[in-house]
Amino acid sequence: MSGIKDRVAVIGMGCTKFGERWDSSAADLMVEAAYEAYEDAGLEGKDIQAAWVGTAASFRTAQPLAAALKLDYIPISRVENACATGTDAFRNACYAVAAGIYDIVLVVGVEKLKDSGFSGLAVPEAVGADVTPQVPPPSQFALAATRYFHQYDIPYEEGKMTLAQIASKNHHNGTMSPKAHFQREVSAEQVVNAPMVAWPLGLFDCCGVSDGAAAAIITTPEIAKTFRDDYILVKGIGLSVGAFGIMRNDWDFTHFPETVRASQSAYQEAGISDPRKEIDLAMVHDCFTITELIIYEDLGFSPRGRASEDVAAGTFSLEGELPVNTDGGLKCFGHPIGASGVRMIYEVYKQLQGKAGGRQLKNPTLGLTHNLGGRPGSFTCSVALLGTRD
Amino acid sequence: MAGISAYGAYVPRYRLGAETDGWESAGQRSIANFDEDSVCMAVAAGIDCLTGHDRQEIDGLLFATTTPPYSEKQCASIIATALDLRRDIFTADITNVLRAGTTALKSALDSVTAGSAEKVLVIASDNRQGAPKGEAERNSGDGAAAFIISNEDVIAEQAGSYTITENMMDTWRSAGDPFVRSWEDRFAIEEGLERILGEAVSGFMEKEGVSVKDVGKLAMYSPDGRRHAQLARQLGFQPEQVQDPLFGRLGNTGAAFPLMLLAGALEDSTPNQLLLTVAYGDGSDVLGFRTTAKIQDYVASFGVSGYLDSGLVLDSYETFAKWRDVWITDSSSKRPQAQSPSVTAMWRESDQNIRFHGAVCNQCGYVQYPPQRVCVECQGLDDSSPIRLSDQPGTVFTYSLDHIAGTVDTPLAIAVVNFECGGRVLCTMTDRETSEIKIGLPVEMSFRKLRVVNGIHNYYWKAIPRRRAV
Angle A163-A165-A171 (CA atoms, 0-180°, nearest 5)? Predict the structure, then answer.
């Protein structure tokens, strides 16, 4: 297995403003993201040889992308893989280029959630016998929080404060993110005192629900050089699908094996042995604050059961040792499912190019993105590593 | 001789009582939870009755109720499946009359006597509704009783019966009518209850050659406590002969009522006592049972007393009104409308969803739910045996309290339950006080109605704080 390291490059990206885009359709959002990516790369739609569009529920088939962008009868696939949809679309596009099938391809991740009429996530699932409890996402992750506090003997107030600090950190980063849905400071006290959604998770422990799209243009490193000097290289991609943890009587709810496996395979491709030291920034799937806490441990950033110490030490803040969710994360962008993974890649891409504005880190060279789709015990997890050229 | 070889009962956990804000009665009555109907309570009483008995030996199930969830579609078949009974059994719903419970008992006794069945399970269950804050609501209760009728191990053998059938419009509910209606009280009591029931009791005595003083316990229907005492007195019974009708604790449980009183009477009966079960409705049934020596060694299940003693008084009448859809709540903005379940999938998954079978791997012994073709532990293919989890004790491994799930039972308690025999299920909790939920809480499974969509009553198992001793 030769892996994906340094075999494909990102030469252009786009990202819409995320939020309640009442006046924009999924097609509008795809046009907005794709045309920014075209402009960033310095090419046109006719240069695209193949495309992948990731959406969890906004539409079926690949045709809406062709229709929106008037792509010229090229091959397009629609990808759906839960909350890892966007990154998986990116992954498939990378592999097609690495295989030498195409030279220049487009990835678009999009989701139009705010047409549902519900303030929460309203993605229809297959009904079947309909006896499996309809557990909304906050409760799915609350199950992990309850058990995490119990397993590590963390008093409720202390656990709530740790989670609140994660939310507060992401909201702070979001104030410097013009494309974020939410761009205001939220104190840890506000997070702790917010109305309960799914005990022990309150309103500000949850990410928002929003509309958005992001796009990437991928090519080979050789071709990339003809477009720009500061192209970004893909260093590793891992994907893990584990759908039976919930059936295991011994699975503890306090670690997500899918994240461990996806990150380990990405680290292996990229040649990373000490992720905490070698990675400069990480965009992780903070659908809920507890998720981000557990991710710190699953990605190997913090020892098991001790991520709260790193949170307290500010390890993951913008000024910390390993900044996480520098753009504000899902907490501030919301989570238009198909778009999120590509939006994360957009942030890493901009940070590595030194174009991240007020939230710009000092000379980062390696960034990670992480998506977690599904529910504790049954996840699809993707991890991507992107780095600057040598 | 045919008779009762086992009995059990069920009373829902919640009560309306003096502490219930907005409830204008000093006494208590039992109330089924929002997710509990006559079928659910029947399953609970059936489990109670079947404890320690081989379910494979049951040859028939008769379900008596005036509140079947379906007008067309048998309920006994749902109950038989939830109780994990055999498929080659006869089942019937006996309904539309308050005498349905005694009718079912009598039919079972006749079947066993005739030799067409060896063991028949009889379950009576009712949750009749009176109009909000009216007399019927005040005096009613919700509950169920279950009996195994058999020729073997009989603790109370049949000792005669007498029935009067008389078309009587004193209490009724038309199809689609949510509440019980009654004609003028004085007429209904004098020309209905007192005359007809009295005539049936005297007829029984005459036919069987017994007198009032021969009766050990009288388990008798009545719409309320005052009438019950009055009627027993008129019939010549001494107070100590009268089984406590439990008004002020349980309430009139309709078709299940005389059977619940009979189950209560059996709890503290001695050998060679004559027990009379008297039901009323379009006539009157009187069934006699004589306790045998075997009742001394009979190990009683949780029963009427156990369930009555493990109740909780609801905090407000408003909550009860929401449970009964009398107080309509607005959940339209919270979650999308539920879609119809797939009947095909319900049928295909009946063993795992209704029988609540998990699978135990024949190769490695791992218990898993739902059953898997490929073992989650050893990946062995198609090599497992069913294991019934519905009556297995469990504990809460982790939980959440959900405020947005759009249910009348806010916050919705969602739990991961580990069974002591192995196996794990993600389920909702019901009959729970938020304050009692914690990791390690002992729970048992309870058959409940998730929702009604497209006229389909979709039942499944939920976890409840453990009420029955393991």
Answer: 110
